[in-house]
Amino acid sequence: MHPTLRYLIAFLLLMLLMQEAHEIAHLLTDKLVGGCGGTRYFMYLDLCEASSTAKVITTALAGPFITYLFMWIGYFMLAGNPSLRQKSWGFTLIMAAVPLSRMQSLVLRGGDELLSFRRMLEPNPPFKGAAMIVGSLLILLATVPPLWRAFKNTGHKNRILTFAAFLILPYIIVDVLQKLLLKPGMKVTLLESPLGSQSLTWLVLIDIALLVFFVLTYRSIAALFRQR
Predict the structure, then answer these.
(1) pLDDT over threshold 60, residue 228
(2) Helix (H/G/I), strand (E/B), else coil: 53
(3) For site-directed labelling of 100, which of 68, 70, 164, 218 has its Cα 20 to 30 A away?
């Protein structure tokens, strides 16, 4: 494994785009099922939960579905005897999905998955903590196999340290950015438009910029694992 500066930039851009895809999936699904809407910020959606139970559950699970989809694409790319290109992309897709963000629900007892199962089991869960148990099992089944396969493909030199860095640092970056950009003043700014257009807000322009820069750098991802 040889993560160059260009690779790390591409990884960061992909990570942010995947976080945005998670939130956009929530919002688009809410519109498709006729939910009560929500306000999207950068890597965060303030979702209305006043819709019917089925609509809230469908909308809440749409974001994790996209995240897990990326991870499992990476999982299958690492299957068998992958080429160095497949290995590079597979590992990157798994780790850039920031799996620790999904797994934090096991500790914080929140997140989309647990919200969904709490609503599903209301008002009479079969036993106390049922939603937590079912949601935790879903998260573990969705995250552990891709993470284990990514770990096995990390390489032999400093494997544990390298894997831990790819697992923990993206989570910290996302957490810090969310806290910075969810301050009241920043939330208002993100929804404003420098061009006076309701469609082209700062949030949309940021997403477009991320996509453009990723297109310019994505080729470096295929070279993460390369022959010496």
Answers:
(1) no
(2) helix
(3) 218
Q: Find out whether 61 and 113 touch, Cβ atoms under 8 Å.
A: yes
pTM: 0.89
Q: Can you tell me the distance from the alpha carbon of 29 to that of 215, in angstroms, rounded to the nearest whole number? A: 26
pLDDT digits (tens, 9 = 90+) for 147-182: 999 999 987 778 899 999 999 999 999 999 888 887
Q: Domains in the chain: how many in total? A: 1
Single out the residue of 49, 43, 46 nearest to residue 22, CA to CA.
43
Q: Which of 72, 19, 3, 57 is CA-nearest to residue 222? A: 3
Listed residue (183, 187, 138, 146) closest to 163, CA to CA? 146
Residue 112 belongs to a domain: yes
Which residue intervals of 78-201 are DSSP H helices?
84-96, 99-103, 105-108, 112-121, 130-152, 159-181, 184-190
| Residues 6 or more apart whose Cβ sits within 8 Å of residue 163 | 150, 151, 154
Three-state secondary-structure class, residue 39:
strand
- Matching residue, tokens 């009479």: 124
Structural domain boundaries, residue 204: 5-223
Q: Could you read off the pLDDT of 47-70 as tens digits, one per residue?
A: 777 677 888 888 888 889 999 999
Residues 6 or more apart whose CB falls under 8 angstroms from that of 220 comprise: 4, 6, 7, 9, 10
Q: Please state the φ and ψ torsions of residue 38, each to the nearest 5 degrees.
A: 175, 170
- Within-domain flag for 228: no
